[in-house]
Every structure is written in structure tokens, then in C-alpha cells.
Amino acid sequence: MPYDVRPGGNRRLDHVLAEDYLSGLPDLSLAEVRQLRDDADQEEVDLSYLRRLLQGRLDILGAELQRREEGREGGLVESLAAILAEHGTRGPAFGMGRHGTKEPSRAGESRRYVEGLVSDPGVSDVSAQSTEEITAAIELLRTEEHSVSGRRRQVQAVFDACSAEITRRYRTGEADPLALLQQPGAPTDEPTA
Questions:
Q1: pLDDT digit string (tens) for 165-190?
Q2: 8 A C-beta contact, residue 93 and residue 143
Q3: Structural domain contains residue 1
Q4: Is residue 133 assigned to a domain?
């Protein structure tokens, strides 16, 4: 799976979840801690996007199975918007509880990956798949969504550790909040206590 962590790998995910990523965190410069946090933040955005793609595909396949069980005629195209609506059958979203401004950096790669998982002929042709094929695809996608969610939680913990270190430095006076105002283009998203 491309979203497994590869020790010594060169991908951002490999670095962010490496055992030594947070080693010596209190000794790093504030800029270095911010960079670690920013890398974790971007990875979280990418994993969140991948997870949403997986969930959307699960919703579509689940709706097709439900349509078949209920014996309803017609395809999914007419009800696609309702299937993918934010407040569907999944329930409320649980995330980091913060507003992000970053865009996924691997959107195309994530889409191709999800499509390749089930050798998808296209969302509009899901009705051509057998019930057994759809059920198998759902199981595969659920397993992958569970794995991606686990990786995402790990990345969130790294982000939180970096944010806590930055907050600690401001609380203890090791970092000067006025220095942020004096730096052109300096980040303005420091955590507040």
C-alpha cells in the first residue's frame, strides 16, 4: 500500500511518521519546529483528502447496494448529490477542529489510487457491477479507509506535539511573540493558550 510508512523512505509521510521525527524537539530552533509542524499539517491535509475520496466511493457503492435491496429502479446519477452530501448517513465529521487553508498536494495521485483499488470503470457504471463485486470493493475500501484514518491520527499527534512545543516556548518566554510582528511574511497562525 502506498500509504504505509516506509522506514528510511523519502516521502513526507515517511519523514513525519519516522520514529526520530520529533527527537530533540525542545532543542530545535523555532523555525525548525514550525517546519516540522507545517510538514505534518500538509500530510494531514493529504490524508484527509484521500480519506474523503474513499468515503465518497464507499457512499456510492453502499447506495447502489441499498437501491438493489429495496428494488428501486434507476441509477445513481440522479441521486449522486444526495449520496455525497455532507450530512449523509455517515453522521457528523470528527477532525482536528481547526480551519485549514492548505490544499491537498497529491490530489491527482490520491484519485488515481482510489480508482485503482477497485479497478473502477467509473462511478456512472457502478450498476454494471455485480453485487458480489460491489461487496468486495466495499470491504477493500473500508480496510483502506481504516488504514488511512489510522495514519491520519498518527500525523495529527505529530502536529499536536509540534504545536505544543511552540506554545510552551511562548508561555515560558523562550520565544518572543513580538518577533513574529517584526518578520516580513512570518506565520501568524501560532497557537493561543
A1: 999 999 998 888 777 676 665 555 55
A2: no
A3: no
A4: yes
Count of domains forming the chain: 1
Distance of CA 62 to the CA centre of its chain: 21
Q: Which domain holds residue 129?
A: 25-90+102-182
The span from the CA of 124 to the CA of 4, in Å, is: 30
Question: CA 51: distance to chain centroid?
Answer: 5
Question: Under a CB-based contact definition with an 8 Å cutoff, are residues 74 and 22 in contact?
Answer: no
The pTM of this model reads 0.77
Summarised one tens digit per residue, pLDDT across range 81-96 is: 666 664 444 444 454 5
- Return the exposure string of 24-52: e unless at least 16 CB atoms fall within 10 Å of the residue's CB, then b: ebeebebeebbebbebbbbbbbbbbbbbb
- Please report whether residue 18 resides in a domain: no
Q: Are 34 and 186 spatial neighbours (Cβ–Cβ below 8 Å)?
A: no
On whether residue 80 sits in a domain, the answer given is: yes
